[in-house]
Specification:
Blueprint lengths: L5 H14 L3 E3 L23 H4 L9 E9 L16 E10 L4 H13 L11 E5 L4 H10 L6 E3 L4 E2 L4 E12 L23 E14 L5 E14 H8 L12 H10 L9 H22 L8 H19 L11 H8 L5 H4 L1 H35 L4 E2 L1 H11 L3 H9 L4 E2 L1 H23 L16 E2 L6 E12 L2 E3 L1 E2 L3 E6 L1 E2 L13 E4 L5 E10 L5 E7 L3 E2 L3 E6 L1 H25 L5 E6 L4 E6 L6 H16 L4 E7 H6 L13 E7 L3 E4 L14 E10 L2 E8 H21 L8 H35 L3 E3 L2 E8 L4 H14 L4 E8 L2 E8 L1 H5 L4 H8 L5 E5 L3 E6 L5 H13 L3
Length: 881
């Protein structure tokens, strides 16, 4: 067996398929872009949905990748099994309508067995096939697999509902008798069974059918190959590791954790080893997830991160680790993965800051969980039961991160057990929910071929001209079908050349007109999108019929286009200004460039102050006033990155890229339209800033004429305020407001003083009117006060003077009625409670209330019922036993 590191194995896989004509695709962000069906990127093929469903035709139908992925459906198994992980890397090779079974099988066998590549012993390899897939079985035999190493499996058919499906072949590595954990005659002791000896290392899916909505299976117009090889498993084979955790992908984090513990060592105790494994696994997942822009929160992917951090912290406590420690593993993860993911180390300080903040916060949560657990134990003991309810144990697990075994250990000391069946039932409910979500996550949709085969050339010329004459209609789609002519009101059309920008990168599509040779309007352009093969596909509202071959004049709305390009250039300046103010960890998380405003989403851990926004706005305007030239360079990706260009995870870049440079200040890969000089923006003004999710903020802004209108509108507001304040200049407004506030404060104090005197006078009259009801002294009355606070002050005065046993006061405040009831301490002992009395009388004012035994209050909508409430209080007290 070759002695290879994980980095070498990953690169060898990619190099092999590159030698077979595949394009190496970069590992996409774990946070899905424009795919609401996915919580996380959970496989290599998840990043290629649009290629497989025909939405986009790839430049090269052969692709390969090592894709970081997250799955948390079986999180409770992490650390307990040899190969369960939350974050893993999926090596894959993909064919979109190109090669199929023959090549996929031959290349898989070559990679695994050739001395130039993996060089594994063929005798140790087994494959499984779908029983009806004779072609696959025959091909495996042809490449050299012994017939007795080919196992037919009925479940070797990849099918997740509507969309592409087909038979698959799984490849297993025989790790030898020393790994055998089953009896020889055990029905699971075979390649493909549930055992430790035969390790599944690769799955090759022959996607050849569409699973139709009616349940039928129809041959795909283009057969595809989708494969997945878990890097962690392959590394365990090369490094002869008992589990994935004894490899160079995990051991550095395990050894670091040893140094934080109270002397515990990995390999000494199986129970402790589980904690070491959980921490190593979760440290990788949270590091990559936060590095890709996700942040801890109470929902969605943020909750996943929070849960992983909490599980790691709880397991750290089991190892005797006190205080925050997980954040220290971030740079360790970065070192392990730096060969393929250098960005982790580059952002390590920021990622560690986020993790530590969450760890510190969880210490209090952990204490709350322990308090809840102790309460549950005490309640269980008092009730005479011997088991903690399963649902409560699951709440501890799900909300506070307490594994059930931890709950069991705590309860054991008090001779209390846990309702394991009830816990498992709650866990099953969660798994069922996850399984349903997983099926939806992987669905790609039925393949569509309307435009996949349309490859007629179409040139976009809108970077330099906004009007094109003699543009020829090459393709028409009407009513969902290709046609040579249409009279429909709406149609999609491709021209051989066009000045209309197709929506991309957040920039909206151009609008405009389609004219005939005499300048007569033929159609208006409502929208422009990219067809699967990259052409600009125009949605036209037709005023007359058209046909393929027609030649027309295409004219972009120049004013609309100009406003859009100004706002697009502003997003580039804003992006860099945000990095200047908040740090390089800040990433663009989405944008929208409209003619009248721009919207820019960005990742940021923490609040954004008015001072921060002022700095950002000032930087952007300074760059506008500096009149910086905006230039575009067409080059390759490598050269663009050397130029310092920022690339976005959300965008896919071809061999040739456009690098847009605002001087040497803001440099980005971008296919959008831009001004020639920043002075064209005129002015930049932020109109709003809000949080839109965990760690994601949104800025809206305007430029040029829209910025002037925004400022003018606010100037008018200020001018009107000056007039109302009788100020000669708007600059006097702040001083006038200060003066008014002082006056209001003085008047408010005076009014309060007068109200207090009035209340005191009323109180004197009311407090003198003491009734004797059922052996209790009662004072009631409706007073004139301005708030419930003044009613409470009267009640305080009553209590200090010990004027009666019970006090009931009411007041009309505005259009509402307020009631307050106070009861002396001795009267409470006799069974009279303020809360009971308030509930009895509040219906008279169409309200409700409550409070403590000595003081309660209520509000209602019927002030006319206040006097009735006083009468009802006397009746209630007289009927009290």
């Amino acid at each position: 067996m070759k002695n290879l590191s994980s980095s070498e194995i990953r690169q060898m896989y990619l190099d092999f398929f590159k030698s077979k004509g595949h394009t190496i695709m970069p590992s996409a962000s774990l946070v899905p872009v424009d795919d609401p069906t996915l919580l996380w990127i959970n496989s290599g093929v998840a990043t290629m949905k649009n290629y497989f469903n025909g939405t986009i035709v790839p430049k090269n139908p052969r692709m390969t990748s090592s894709q970081k992925s997250i799955r948390t459906n079986d999180i409770e198994n992490v650390g307990r099994t040899a190969r369960h992980h939350t974050l893993f890397e999926m090596l894959g090779n993909f064919s979109v309508g190109d090669y199929f079974k023959d090549d996929a099988i031959a290349w898989a066998w070559e990679l695994l067995t050739s001395d130039k590549w993996f060089g594994w012993d063929p005798a140790k390899l087994y494959v499984t096939v779908y029983p009806k897939d004779d072609a696959a079985k025959k091909r495996w035999e042809e490449v050299g697999v012994s017939p007795d190493h080919i196992v037919e499996q009925e479940d070797n058919f990849w099918d997740i509902g509507e969309g592409p499906s087909g038979p698959d072949s799984e490849i297993f590595y025989d790790r030898g008798q020393s790994f055998n954990n089953l009896a020889e005659d055990d029905p699971e002791n075979y390649p493909g069974g549930e055992n430790e000896r035969y390790l599944e290392i690769w799955n090759i899916v022959f996607s050849q059918f569409n699973h139709e909505p009616d349940g039928s299976y129809k041959p795909l117009p283009r057969k595809n190959i989708d494969t997945g090889m878990g890097l962690e498993r392959v590394v365990s084979v090369f490094q002869n590791a008992k589990t994935n955790f004894e490899t160079d992908l995990f051991l550095p984090m395990i050894h670091a954790t040893e140094s934080y513990s109270d002397g515990k060592q990995y390999g000494q105790d199986p129970k402790q080893d589980i904690s070491f494994k959980v921490i190593a696994d979760h440290s990788r997942a949270v590091t990559f997830a936060i590095g890709d822009g996700a942040l801890p929160s109470n929902e969605g992917r943020g909750y996943v991160i929070r849960r992983l951090i909490r599980r790691a912290v709880v397991n750290g406590q089991k190892l005797g680790i006190k205080g925050a420690f997980l954040y220290k593993l971030v740079p360790v993860v970065g070192e392990v993965m730096k060969a393929y993911y250098p960005e982790v180390l580059q952002n390590a300080d920021y990622i560690a800051q986020v993790v530590k903040s969450e760890e510190d916060r969880f210490n209090a949560t952990l204490a709350d969980g322990l308090n809840l657990l102790n309460s549950l134990i005490e309640e269980t003991k008092k009730s005479g039961k011997s088991k903690i309810d399963g649902a409560e144990a699951f709440k501890l697990y799900d909300t506070y991160g307490f594994p059930v075994e931890l709950t069991r250990e705590y309860a054991f000391d008090d001779h209390i057990t846990v309702d394991e069946d009830g816990f498992k039932a709650e866990m099953k409910k969660q798994r069922d929910r996850a399984r349903k979500a997983r099926n939806a996550d992987n669905s790609m949709g039925v393949q569509s071929d309307v435009l996949v085969g349309v490859k007629t050339p179409s040139e976009y010329v809108g970077y330099t001209q906004l009007e094109v004459k003699n543009a020829k209609v090459t393709d028409i789609v009407a009513d969902g079908k290709l046609t040579d002519a249409t009279e429909d009101e709406v149609a999609q059309v491709i021209f051989d050349k066009t000045p209309f920008y197709a929506e991309m990168g957040g920039q909206v599509a151009d609008k405009g007109d389609v004219l005939d040779e005499n300048g007569n309007l033929i159609a208006t352009v409502e929208d422009v999108q990219h067809a699967p093969n990259g052409q600009n596909l125009h949605t036209l509202k037709l005023h007359r019929g058209i046909k393929v071959g027609d030649q027309m004049t295409l004219k972009v709305d120049a004013h609309f286009h100009s406003k859009v390009k100004k706002n697009h250039t502003a997003t580039h300046l804003l992006d860099q200004a945000l990095r200047d103010v908040f740090g390089e960890h800040t990433q663009q998380a989405g944008s929208l460039v409209e003619p009248n405003y721009l919207r820019f989403d960005f990742t940021h851990f923490g609040q954004v102050t008015e001072a921060d926004l002022a700095k950002v706005e000032a930087i952007v305007n300074q760059k506008i006033f500096e009149e910086i030239p905006v230039t575009t360079t067409i080059t390759d990706q490598a050269t663009g990155k050397k130029m310092g260009a920022i690339a976005l995870f959300s965008d896919k870049y071809g061999d040739k890229v456009r690098v847009v440079s605002v001087g040497d200040y803001a440099i980005e890969f971008c296919g959008g339209t831009h001004v020639k000089n920043t002075n064209e923006l005129g002015l930049f003004k932020i109109t709003s800033e809000t949080g839109i999710g965990a760690g994601t903020r949104r800025i809206e802004a305007v430029t040029a004429g829209d910025a002037y209108e925004y400022l003018e509108k606010h100037n008018q507001i200020l001018t009107n305020a000056a007039l109302k304040l009788k100020s000669q200049q708007v600059t006097e407004v702040p001083d006038k407001i200060d003066q008014l506030q002082e006056t209001v404060k003085a008047l408010t104090n005076k009014a309060a003083s007068l109200e207090a005197k009035l209340a005191s006078q009323q109180a004197g009259a009311i407090f003198d009117n003491v009734q004797d009801v059922n052996g209790k002294k009662l004072i009631t009355g409706v007073v004139q006060v301005s708030s419930m606070d003044q009613l409470r002050q009267l009640a305080d005065t009553w209590r200090q003077k010990d004027l009666s046993d019970v006090l009931v006061l009411g007041a009309e405040v505005g259009e509402k009625a307020n009631l307050i009831v106070a009861v002396s301490d001795d009267t409470i002992k006799a069974g009279v409670k303020a809360g009971d009395l308030i509930k009895a009388i509040s219906p008279k004012i169409n309200g409700g209330g409550g409070g403590r035994p000595n003081l309660a209050q209520a509000g209602g909508k019927n002030p006319a019922g206040l006097q009735d409430a006083m009468t009802e209080a006397s009746k209630w007290l007289s009927n009290l036993n």
